[in-house]
Amino acid sequence: LTLKFPDLATDDEGNEGFWTLIYNQGFEVRIKGRKYFAFSAYEKNGKNVTSHCGKTMPGWTHDVMDRNWACFQGQKVTPVPPKHHQMPEQHSVELLQQLKFRTNYDFIDQINKKQSLWKATAYRDMEDMTLEDLVRRAGGRKSKIIGIPKPAPVSEEVKRIADKLPEIFDWRTTGFVSPVRNQGGCGSCYAFSAMGMNEARWRLRTNNTEQPVFSPQDIVECSEYSQGCDGGFPYLIGGKYAEDFGIVDEKCNPYKGKDGKCSTDKSCPRQYSYNYQYIGGFYGGCNEELMKINLVKNGPLSVSFEVYNDFFHYKGGVYVHTGLQEKFNPFEITNHAVLLVGYGVDAATGVKFWTVKNSWGTQWGEDGYFRIRRGTDECSIESIAVQSFPLY
Question: Where is the signal peptide, in residue numbers (predicted)?
Fold first, then answer.
């Protein structure tokens, strides 16, 4: 196979197909009636990581009807020397599991004094969490993305379509968005984001005659495409897992908020999705205008963004990262998956924003939701949006 920028795959027989990177973790190819997916190969020894960019881990392949499964392994025809690098300095899991979060009221005051777009507050439930719980709450260690692409250029055609959209839009007004839930101290935000997208689009597809709540625990326990409570990515869950294996109702595997053996009731029917994709068609093809178009046309989107420790204290308003860092509670930047449900313009300030459903419970933020500045790729939220469609 030959993979050409940005998304063209060809084989030795002259067949053409599609390919995309999957975050910075691997790639997927669709060609000649088959799909191929694999993670890139690497070795880790303590802080030392060796990336074998020229080959893959053992991956999965099947035909487009999800039949005739097989394993494969890929290697570049032209050898690529391995790259050696060290992981950034991180606090150990063991240390963060022992340290309890402590509310730093001075830090909250600093946030509120530095800017006026949003308000910060203290949350008592965070006092019951360890610092490792907070890392997981914000995405988990395995969801960190290095080198997130910038938003793609906007074509004149896309701009023309986007300009005709309403100035304010919110799927919550239709009743198609399922209730806010709480992921707890498990890094399962990717599963809640992916299930939330499928729930909303299933409601939209059936005109609210069916209102499913799907099981994130099935993903945490049973998916080989993610890392349980250590994190994962919506493209592989709301998209590929939902298409390859299907998703189940919450009652088939109620949420426990912890890792475990796959315990999903095997008698439960599974619902499937199809045509999963990055907004823009491939990794790196996303931008604000395409997100608005697909949001309005097709329904809520799974999106990801970088979480900094000021975000934990968000209470209301339009979030913009302050640049402030908290000394009492050590924290590494993670990539958090959430559900995009609308957009608008703040009446008081004129600042454009996205309306986003979080999975930290209704006591957090604006009844479980938050608004974040739109049009500036705030915390990389306009870079890697994902969608899929219910097979009904």
Answer: none
